């Protein structure tokens, strides 16, 4: 037996695992930029497939500046936060190009995430930046505002595109993106971050999630649909989009490892290549058993707290999908998920999460059925709409999406919950065990001896593209 330390809720847990369990970890990450501001200025002045930002700004009247919300990165700590580097510099370039301060609007691109307070925005954008912008010039996106959204149309395959009104009204749209994994950035910045539920349901539906490809891969149904919608928006609105993508290094605290800027597709492709260089880790085939320690942090628990559906999303949604080619665990294998799974919900941020957990999952755990029964209901239920629009609650349908992301793993493999509240584990569709050791022993007895510990963070993508799928 060998002692390993894993993340387990709010603590680190020492566990004894068989010597045969392989420990999978990230390779050496990209070095932090020595001069983040200098790197940003170089990217903005010599962008990819686009004139420099200053030249675009000189031809613009109204300008929209949008930025990734505090859900990325998780955990939040950065040194420095790339938004605090980029946003003041963008404003400096706009001012130097003659754009009047009153003609600039700044939106935190929250999509279906909750609206953040000004104090929370200051944590990522910088206190000076936030304090200089009055409320009418700095706001969080409202994906349910009937007056603040514009329906652009349908793509060739019938995907509806609806975005914030400022996107269409501005002469120039500058987006400051933070990328932690290859799913982040690109057109998702616009059509998700500044989109509506009407649009987002097309690529966050279970049909797009339950696919052969991981959603971190550009060819996945989710990313393909997002790109199709973004290019439709670009064609309809004109080539007025300028993307800045900050790629985070994998070390903690997070630091910018590179900036890419220019036309959306070009900047995003370059940023994805940089992330893949850092995170793609060759793995020699699938495992019978994969052990995942799940911490008590999530993109959707920043400045908040975890709940059982967020643990499900983190362990079986994000961690399970960090692969290329094929999942790390074989079909019919076992995932051992280690987390206390406490039944607790933030009363302001997650009201519809509690509703789905207590009532929705009592009816069904089938993600498509959950979607059909509850997604539209929660999206339009008056109390959830009010809590989202006028408070700091997540959009009503958000937990339906989060559960579906994790349900893909449940359809692919069995899930044993180690050290978890058994009532919560069973509600989510897991089989509870008292300890990690007991769960691993039972998992290898049932599924086979080839086992791995998914030891993250730092985040990495298990690359199985070079190994043939075994015949079973």
Tell me briefly what this model is.
This protein has helices at 36-45, 53-58, 82-96, 118-125, 127-131, 165-169, 188-191, 197-200, 206-209, 221-237, 264-279, 308-319, 351-363, 367-380, 382-390, 398-412, 422-428, 436-447, and strands at residues 2-8, 11-17, 22-24, 63-68, 104-109, 138-140, 149-154, 160-164, 172-179, 241-248, 256-262, 280-282, 287-293, 323-324, 329-338, 414-418, 431-433, 451-454, 461-463.
Whole-number mean pLDDT: 95
In CATH, the homologous superfamily of the largest domain goes by the name LarA, N-terminal domain
What is the CATH architecture term of the largest domain? 3-Layer(aba) Sandwich
Structural class: alpha/beta
Low-confidence stretches: none
Enter the CATH topology name of the largest domain: Rossmann fold
* Distance linking N and C termini: 29 Å
